[in-house]
Amino acid sequence: MDSRRGGGWPRASAVLDTAVFVLGLGVLAGALLRWRAGGCDPALLGALALGVPLCWGLTRFPLLVTGIAGGIAVPLSPVLLPHLLTVHPDTASPGTALLAWTLSTLVAHLLDRRAWATRLFNAGSATLGGLAATLVVSALAPADPLTPRQLLAVLAGAGAYYATDAVLSAFSVAVERGRHPLGELADPGTAVGGGTFLLVAVLGYLAAAVELALPPWVAALTLVPVLAVVVAASASRSAHQRRRQQHALFEAAVRVHAAASAEELVEALEVHGCALVSTGWLQVRAQPPGAGEVGCAVPGEAARWVVARRAPAPDSQRVDETALESLAALAAAALVRVRLSEESERHALLDALTGLPNRRHFTAQLERSVAAGASVAVLFVDLDGFKAVNDTLGHAAGDELLQEAARRLVLVVGADGLPARLGGDEFAVLLPDQLPGLVEDVGEAVVACLREPFLLGAGPATIGASVGVTTSVRDDDADSLLSRADAAMYAAKRSGGSRSVLAGDEA
Questions:
Q1: Which of the 8 DSSP states describes residue 270?
Q2: Sheet strands (E) in 372-425
Q3: For 330-341, how does the pLDDT look when each residue is reduced to its tens digit (9 = 90+)?
Q4: CB atoms within 10 A of CB 487
Q5: Distances, alpha carbon 283 to alpha carbons 258, 271, 275, 367, in Å
Q6: Whole-model pTM?
Q7: DSSP state of 287
Q8: N or C: which end of the chain has fewer CB within 10 A?
Q9: Is the peptide bond before 89 cis (omega within 30 degrees of 0)?
């Protein structure tokens, strides 16, 4: 069973995988010593001449069984091991067969194009599985290899090989992902993979039986079904990868469409993009791809790139580049939508004439502050004499006056205050109530700044402002604060206007 690994290599997983590889090297050393003790069987050279290229080629094309638990990869290279154990029986225990298998599988896995973590683990696991298979077949095999008993011995050995590899893979994946090994072994794909692996073992035994019973040219024909399986496995794997990518791209499109901000959009692209590329790593960033990376600029976004690690295989790299182009186009369209949505939301919270927050924005911010338990103050401001300016100088002058009044409010309340236009000639200010008397001083400053003459395009104008001030108390809500400030403002207006009144001092 092929090791199902992610892109990372945590410390605990690194220790386990390295230990598996070291044990595999120990098997190699032991097999070499026993081969020498058995007289250095010269058949080893012929076995390696067949085994190394065959194992290397088959390692690159595992058989992908889909439809069970999302798919499981069954290695084809172990087809060589039943062949070796049947043609080269245990003459040196573990003998020629184990040594040939160990050397072939180490070369094949170490020359693979995957991450080094995966190469080391798979090389060690295949070697240890080969040792288990050799011991079982050696114990059960009859003297005559062309008997049903030999086939049963080969199947038992294949079962031992697969069980060893499955247990090691389960522990490796469990350590890497923080899960329990039994949960990995209970995956339905494990049993399906085991059954498929036994069929691979039968194919290896069949090739050995033909080689022993028939002329060499007939035995060479057994490579035909092996090649047919390889071609089918390659096609199946490519089709599965395309289906997986299409599914990941669809999920990315759904998440990106639902994103309400650029940050959510980038997160969705990275999460689903990792499942889209063969290396399992993708990043949306401002820098273009560097060494060992491929990427695509997001159209219309000079400082945004979709970047992935470069796949070792040219075919996978081309597929990844196409996937990155699709993601970049998806990101471009989604960013335009998000910006339009954010701009629309901003406009919905601003007063079109003055640019100040509107009543909706002000009330929402006041509710958040009160809910958080903050001590705040509210100033309710009504312009005195505005209607006269509007009637005598015209509505354009009135609009200009409102804009200038808003500008003065912004300057007076400072960075800590939130001035807003509630509608008409009514304004409000939200302030933190931090120091005694501070909000009253701000109220007086608002009255003073609005009392200064306005130099409008239609002529000068002088107005005043009635300001009601209130501070929050325990169990206050936004409505009660605004009501008290409004009542204080009307008290200021009844007193002649152009003054500030603190709620509670109306009498």
A1: H
A2: 376-384, 418-423
A3: 888 888 887 777
A4: 16
A5: 20, 9, 12, 38
A6: 0.54
A7: S
A8: C
A9: no
